[in-house]
Predict the 3D structure of the following.
Amino acid sequence: MELAAFSIQVFQLYIMCAEGYAVFSRGKALGSDSRLIQTKFRIEEHRLEEWGQYWGFSRRDTAQLERSLLMRGQSTRNIVIETLTAISTILRDSDALMSRYGLKKNDLDSQEVLRNLDQRLVERLTFERGRHDEYVVQINKKNSLLAKCLWGIRDRSRIERLIMELKGFNDTLELLLPRGGEKSIDWSTATLISGSDDPEELGIVAKALKELGQEEAGRIVQFRQENIRLERAAAQVLTFRPSQHLLINKNDLDFIPRRSSRERSLALHGADMVMVEWKPYQPGGQTEVIAQRADNLVRQLHVSTARPANWNILPCLGYFDDAAKFRYGYVNALPRGIQQYLPLSLYELLNTSTPSLDERFRLAEYLAKSLLLFHSSGWVHKSIRSSNIVFFHCAVNNRPLYGNPYIVGFDYARPDNPNAQSIERSAGNNTENEIYRHPDLQKANPRRFTAADDIFGLGLVLLEIGLWKRLRDVGSGKGTEFLDKCITETDKLNPKVGTTYANVVKLCLSGSLGSKHEASLGWEKAVGNREWEDDWRKDKLAEGGKFYWEVVHQLGKCQA
């Protein structure tokens, strides 16, 4: 079989598999008492969707698949077809589902089933089907699950067997046609599937992931769950009281004068070297709100909080109020295997020799992944800039560890929900920092900060990494005038780092990755409206998916 015809066959089988998954994972397909099982179906559905997305099915482009198949033997191609056929057969043969897997069907009108599906899914399932009607007819010789019924559970143990078989098929596809160097399910699926703000629902998702052997993804979801619980608990407190177990006595810290800057300091805490980050505040301002936010942030970043692996945000040991200087000090543990110097910021390193192209690509990808994960935890950073990305020195050769960046500077971080109170910056911030903020936020009466503004800041940092020069060296000015200069500067990226990287930077600066609801005029007035807030959450979920595929995934494809 020619490769082009083979890829079309794979594509059509993929569509049939997606049809079958759709019924199980949408609405109340398995009944309200089967949320864990339904979530497991959703997880395996996401795995298959991402596999298909990687190989170009959603872009109507199978050229990448054909190139990959060309390097593999006929036996591998046959196994791919057999695996997809097995998934399609299992999910579309109603007799087998009832006899082998213990399901019972509740007959419904096919139009009622279709109304329960996402419109985007329906469009995807009907895409290009007319070109290959003959093959579709062959696949549809089995009873069509989509057109006939929704399902209920009759035997839980047998439905669990079905899930494990589907998991095995996904494992096989990813083994035969792996998605580059990406894990089978981690950053992308965990963030896409954890869009709920309901701690109970997130707990079910985390449990389902862990039972399917996806421990890391489960930790990502659990991290979001814990943060939402903390924020809701804080909202119930009428009078703020700091968490005593998080407080550190400033007198227990022995500061090292020559290892300090305005933003951070090194100190000895007992026998351990620690790094203290400073958060200034204005006297007489939103004192209690700031204190509550500081306490919540330390809880989120605390060393005792289960966090995803390789998420490079320093574990926090506690904090203190340096009231005499109107600032909080966040006390952070240092990583192992480093020289115990004050870390160098990316801003400082941009004035040194340029690291290799591959080091810069991996640095950019890591920063994008870290921001995606921070957003998925339910917070916005609000201060993404090169001075808040730091590198420690390797204990062996004393070189900056470019492959191990840490995001710091959580001065104004807050929960990313429309009801969270936003704290404005103090008046003393310098223009050098302000140029990393969207022009709308530099105005005398700025609009509310959104996750899209973090992405905007990331775009400017990626511009610096690509050109390896400080943002201020682009030119003078601020606001829209300065942004126009930055956009012009992106044209210089193509010969230095390639078109893919340049397009990512342009996308981040365009603002198109933001929530449509937050971009609408006067959206703050809609807060409190249940329907609007439900739409806002769906919008945020779609935003996270787009950021993964169009930024994180694209940066991962950049190679020196």
